[in-house]
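User: When convenient, might I ask for sequence and structure tokens for a protein?

AI:
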Amino acid sequence: MLDRRQTLALAAAGLAASAVPAFAAGKKPVIVNALGGIMNPNIPLGQKATFLPGGEELDIDVRAIADARASGVTAVNCTLGYVAGPQDPHQFTLEDLDQWDALLRANPKDLLLVRTAADILKARDEGRIGVIYGFQNALQVGEHLERVDQYAARGVRVIQLTYNPANTLGDGSMAPENRGLTPLGRKVVEKLNQARVMVDLSHSGERTCLDAIAASKAPISINHTGCRALADLPRNKTDAELRGVAEKGGFVGVYFMPFLKIDGHPRAADVVDHIEYALKVCGEDHVGIGTDGSVVGVDDLAVYQGALEKEIAERRAAGISASGERPDTYPFVVDLRDRNQFHKLADLLAGRGVKPRVIDKVLGLNFLAYAQEIWG
């Protein structure tokens, strides 16, 4: 039995339950990357690029859009604004919003700002990439709760409470005290509910996550994570967290990250393992994908390895690195990092016996239903 919001999502998407997934049936599926990007990772490595107007600073070029379209992705939650660093969090966030707004204004045939669930379907039907504005920290809100309304008016639809360290709202996954949600954090959760912004508990510590689930009057999400039962690392979520999100009607996105395996070198089969486990814990209506990356492949892994070593060293020095990040690991799954990643994932899930209607839910219909619940 499908609940009301799942029925509405299926009807709106035009993808009634069938014997084959939308991909295989030749239909245009709803594919939502609950945390990802549309950048070309080869540009910072010195590759020449033909940029979209306004895309230079964001590493978004013609190839990035072409690969995104070829992948079939409908919409992507793109991280913008302050995450960490010495900048003023609020001012940096406003400047980043200006930059993204300019990019979207300059490329209306390619990109569409997603404000409602209907915009996700509009992006699919018009052949554009839906861009969801999301934060991976709420430090820029701070004690100024009115900023939530300001950000929401600018189009921000997802706000993650913490990054890896603790902040004034709660403890991140790498904060050893695991102290939970602070009084200010509870006020921010309440304000996010009022503003109809998704409360994202990715990167949070376990107690902060469980406290936020209890405090929120609306369903919450963990947009990019793995399952702690399969790989005991802080960035992955415990059964209690996963189950708590599902029981409240929320959404869990499984990432394509090194944390899926203790040795830091997961393959596509490991992604499927985590999705299958999450389906068992959460049920088929609450699991999706949040890859934490774009679809463009890395052309030269040797050059990339050198850049990654520097990045990991900088993250460790700044105190924002997570257990499982190492210079010899990649922030993606090597055999699921190209324009065919979603097709491959659908085929692998089908090979495990996952039903076609469930595959369509995992690829995007579950996020669409959750978006309808929160954004309208």
